């Protein structure tokens, strides 16, 4: 591959040593003059960019450059710059380049290198040349609208933003309008109606998954409203949002941030935002008949995860510990629910939930043009398959019905609920955990935390789907019930009919709620697309 031409090349000083520094449209590189073969330099950098004896930073990972005032604190970080003690090596003019340093576990840090010049003209020439290259990076945001949930997670959202994020945004010359929310849905309502979105290049969410969901709803609803799209129609073609959402993790689980960035570290997220990284995401629309309920990007869970959320919402005062307590309680209650799931399978030749391919930024499968509709090869475990329009139907008793639009990886479950789910392939993984013993269910749950295949149990089925519907048993139509009651006595049908019309009756099967990205849905019968 042809190397991009050098734009500037000089001998500058770094920590008292003479270095050959060069700038091209692709990278800023420096190495000790005459020591090209020897390794030297600064703190450890992981990745291919630091070859022995030289250091290269891609231009797209330079955060900022500024002329450094000698013997004075640098303006944004409050640190004093090191000035060489030896007068002969002292240069009065220097500039500091801030750049992304990749460290372990997908974490990014903001590093700095200060290069000293013999005269100010040269120093300014370098600053200008680097700034010109940065100005060509048009995907970088310049103006952001930031919403902070001060009550998310351990209530550290405001502090995290002020101490860790705002200083790097200002170093990168990003201007911000910051709104600290005063109530639930403040951000959503502001985005839906008031916010002047034309002013911004993106929206930043400082909070957890619930806060992200609020902002996503505000932005999607605003986009549909502006385009005259009726969200209540389940088959309506939605318009993509023009603005990106950046997530600064400050919640309890931060699952969406973890699944997209690979870590839940605020500085890493801030740096991804600054360099203009983007990751498209699938969004499921959830309807109850012709009523729009919510959008989902991570987990739709009925049964175990629905009950756990319902219980944990009553314990919000406990903070993040509520999830553990509610998890144990829900597990011990071991409730199962009856109902019918119908789904439209995805093209099984492109990817499957058990193919062990992990979706990452730039994933080939997510970049494929719209996947060809094809009939999915039904797995043997499907008890009653209907072939009409390739929809398939499964009835049964379930401990959990989960639909994962993404892996749902988080620090507690590093692989997530569906490790091979894709972020942006237009599908979700439908995971059905049928009624089984407590010990079997525990074995399944424990596999979320280790490397074993969590779908490798006879009571667990997984399907990659494009759409699905769920009807709890007592809401099933007469034809659905007739199918189920084949062989059963007419008296049973008679009682089921009574129970259906009087759901308060004690003998109706109990009903769970859907956990939609951490929010409880008001209906159990849903259509998801
Ligand atoms: N000022 C506020 N007062 C009360 N609730 C708020 C406020 N701002 C936002 N919320 C709501 O708080 C809920 C929870 O917020 P968030 O997602 O940030 O934290 P979390 O629930 O602790 O984390 P996670 O969702 O990752 O588990 C959100 O659904 C959001 O609507």
Automatic annotation (TrEMBL):
InterPro entries: ATP-NAD_kinase_N, CERK_C, CERK_PH, Diacylglycerol_kinase_cat_dom, Lipid_Phosphate_FormReg, NAD/diacylglycerol_kinase_sf. GO terms for cellular component: membrane. GO terms for molecular function: ceramide kinase activity. Gene3D superfamilies: 2.60.200.40, Probable inorganic polyphosphate/atp-NAD kinase, domain 1 (3.40.50.10330). Residues 139-290 form the DAGKc domain. GO terms for biological process: ceramide metabolic process. Residues 70-92 are annotated as: Disordered. Residues 83-92 have a biased composition (Polar residues). It comes from the Eukaryota. This is Ceramide kinase.
